[in-house]
Predict the 3D structure of the following.
Amino acid sequence: MNRSIDIAICQMSVTDSKQNNLNKAEMMITQSVSKNKAQIVVLPEMFNCPYNTKVMADYAENIEGETVKRLSNIAKKLKVYIFAGSFPEKDKEKIYNTSLVFNKEGQLIGKHRKIHLFDVDIQNGIKFKESEVLSPGNDVTVVNTEFCKIGLAICYDMRFPELMRAITLKGAKIIIVPAAFNMTTGPAHWNELLKVRAMDNQVYFIAASPARNMSADYHAYGHSAIVDPWGKIMAQAQAGEIILHSKISLSRVEKIRNELPLLKHRRTDIY
């Protein structure tokens, strides 16, 4: 098992052109590997289309579609793990907000469909209803990699501590969450959630947002981050397009879990 891992987040600006978005993703993944020597590259939520329920059906693809084939080829070519943000996945008559994981051989080794759909109406804030278009997933997702077990969730999923704990109990030492918090929820809760989820579960918490595009209908908060198991923010973006990079150590997960054994001290006889 490799004890240290180079991880990169591509906080990319997403437009209404799927082809341009795929080209941008490939360019940033390539740069992450060539310049930062990344072994794992993470893309943001809805990286190949606008985060807009009115158009998601138009962009939706099945699992054999262009987006999957393109990412598989990139992973194989660059010999890198890709945690492919999310995209609108069409499966029969349903559409899901789906994140995929490709290994260094370009094989699809994991798939997470967003479990908790973002249906909110915040006074003087944002009104958004994913369930108008999307269907929810039903699976807790953890993938096996050469590094360790890595958990996967999408955006609103991170607000549910039960899911994050279920991922941890399946053996995850890293949790990766593509997420597009908005300009109401982002400033209020983003950093706090990332730190608490990392500390509660004593994992590295990797959150990948799109860059903020003020010409789009939905304005993402940005601020992608890599947080260690002690709750320390190791690297963080601002709002613009950037490749965020950090080296993480699995030994630190073990050290913190041994020194502050939260997981061992759970009272499973009571709760």
Observations:
- Residues 18-36 form the longest helix (19 residues).
